[in-house]
Q: What sequence folds into this?
């Protein structure tokens, strides 16, 4: 039986984003330590909390990083003897980071579930779930989806059919991993394929692994078998691996932000390496925006391959002009996924300028995105403080003008710099000038959708651009646009 350590139903309706992992050892070897190792490799996808569910044990959860949590719970984790289990690392779109909201979540002792993604139409699920389970009250989107899945499973007695029914009701993105009370491990990816999910295998230990990204497979010395295709359900039991199709879509909506920022550079997502995509995006930007300067520098860490690409294409040398101070408290964390503006700024402050690289020089800064503009403004200022003469910036992701309802945290329009700069009505050239003034650079070059497609290698008809265009084509219904206050209510 899988049950939770935590009491209650969680907090207000929150969106979940994160890294998921599932492991099944066919040789009956304990997997808890490997879950910890795999989650550590997915840590870039969420640093606020972690959780592990194995059969026969309460769900183990903690706040903060999995490495610290595993150290503090080493004895307990080493006592887990199960040959299968699931794990999760999380970041939230709201300020609240609570143990109750950490995944995996227990669904009435029937299964534990963890998600990467966001269900955009929770209001449609609430009434139908609460009719049967009035104890729920307000809850997370994952918990609502889990309870709805339980209802379908009880009616269908078959997971593929249950997911088929659920998929018709859910609007949004999800990559789920689950472990049932009788020990079946399941993983499902929504039919649009917003968030990544891949399948791996370690032949030395006859172990199947499902993970958000292939970097977790690498850490576990397993081979990448293939991506879990959108609409597929992976089932792992003592009889082995079974894959079924529970839903199909007319086209896919892979998220390009996974390639420019979110994914690990070593990962291969939907058949394209993140590192290669970033490097090529830099080349695309160099052709599109041939700024004249002395040096190209990346904003660490995501933009490094793109800066290399820009440098290769332009012939301008690349140097490390900005460095994260890994020895200070927040140096190694990622600013975008920090929940508050204050904590984001703390991270930026702990990016150190290397004076001899930029002093007296014209500098091209390569960044992955401009969301709120906070980080960019501070970085530009610190470069000027260090003596940079001219500062140009090129950005691998196009102007983000609209919120994402499919799993990335830029939830409301008023937070988006491109939108504040009247982005919706301006063409990219005018927007470049306006945002350049906002963040204090001498020239700015945003990528566009064509450049994104060229750099990543996926067709424009295979990706989502809703945060760029405002057209939520991959959702089954139009999202409810909420203000920041409503999001927090
Ligand atoms: S809206 Fe933007 S961030 Fe969200 S899934 Fe689509 S492309 Fe990715």
A:
């Amino acid at each position: 039986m899988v049950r939770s350590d935590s009491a209650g139903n969680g907090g207000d309706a929150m969106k979940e984003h994160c890294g998921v992992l599932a492991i099944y050892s066919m040789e009956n070897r304990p997997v808890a330590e490997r879950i910890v190792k795999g989650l550590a490799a997915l840590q870039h996808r969420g640093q606020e909390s972690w959780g592990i569910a194995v059969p026969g044990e309460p769900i183990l959860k903690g706040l903060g990083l999995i490495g610290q949590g595993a150290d503090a719970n080493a004895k307990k984790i080493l006592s887990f003897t199960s040959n299968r289990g699931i794990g999760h690392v999380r970041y939230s779109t709201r300020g609240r980071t609570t143990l109750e909201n950490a995944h995996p979540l227990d669904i009435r002792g029937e299964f534990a579930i963890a998600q990467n993604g966001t269900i955009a139409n929770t209001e449609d699920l609430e009434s139908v779930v609460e009719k049967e389970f009035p104890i729920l009250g307000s809850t997370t989107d994952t918990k609502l989806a889990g309870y709805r899945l339980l209802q379908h499973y009880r009616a269908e007695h078959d997971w593929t059919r249950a997911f088929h029914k659920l998929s018709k009701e859910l609007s949004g993105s999800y990559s789920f991993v689950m472990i049932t009370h009788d020990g079946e491990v399941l993983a499902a990816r929504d039919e649009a394929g917003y968030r990544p999910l891949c399948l791996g295998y370690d032949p030395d230990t006859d172990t199947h692994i499902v993970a958000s990204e292939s970097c977790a497979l690498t850490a576990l010395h397993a081979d990448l078998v293939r991506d879990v295709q959108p609409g597929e359900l992976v089932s792992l039991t003592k009889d082995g691996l079974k894959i079924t199709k529970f839903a199909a879509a007319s086209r896919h909506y892979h998220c390009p932000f996974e390639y420019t920022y979110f994914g690990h550079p070593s990962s291969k997502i939907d058949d394209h390496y993140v590192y290669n995509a970033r490097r090529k995006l830099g080349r695309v930007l160099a052709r599109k925006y041939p700024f004249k300067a002395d040096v190209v520098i990346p904003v660490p860490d995501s933009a490094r391959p793109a800066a290399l690409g820009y440098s290769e294409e332009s012939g301008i040398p690349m140097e490390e002009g900005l460095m994260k101070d890994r020895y200070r408290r927040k140096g190694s964390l990622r600013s975008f996924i920090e929940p508050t503006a204050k904590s984001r700024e703390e991270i930026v402050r702990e990016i150190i300028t290397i004076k001899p690289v930029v002093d007296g020089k014209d500098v091209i800064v390569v960044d992955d995105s401009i969301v709120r503009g906070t980080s960019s403004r501070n970085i530009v200022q610190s470069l000027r403080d260090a003596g940079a003469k001219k500062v140009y910036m090129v950005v691998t992701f196009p102007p983000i003008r609209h919120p994402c309802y499919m799993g990335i945290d830029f939830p409301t329009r008023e937070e988006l710099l491109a939108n504040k700069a009247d982005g919706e009505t301006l063409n990219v050239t005018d927007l470049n000038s306006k945002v350049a003034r906002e963040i204090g650079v001498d020239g700015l070059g945003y990528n566009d959708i064509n450049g994104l497609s060229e750099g990543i290698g996926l067709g424009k008809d295979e990706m989502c651009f809703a945060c760029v265009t405002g057209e939520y084509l991959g959702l089954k219904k139009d999202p409810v646009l909420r203000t920041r206050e409503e999001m927090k209510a």
In short: DSSP finds 18 helices and 22 strands in the chain. The longest helix spans residues 141-156. The pocket of iron/sulfur cluster is lined by residues 194, 255-257, 404, 406, 408, 464-467 (CB under 6 Å).
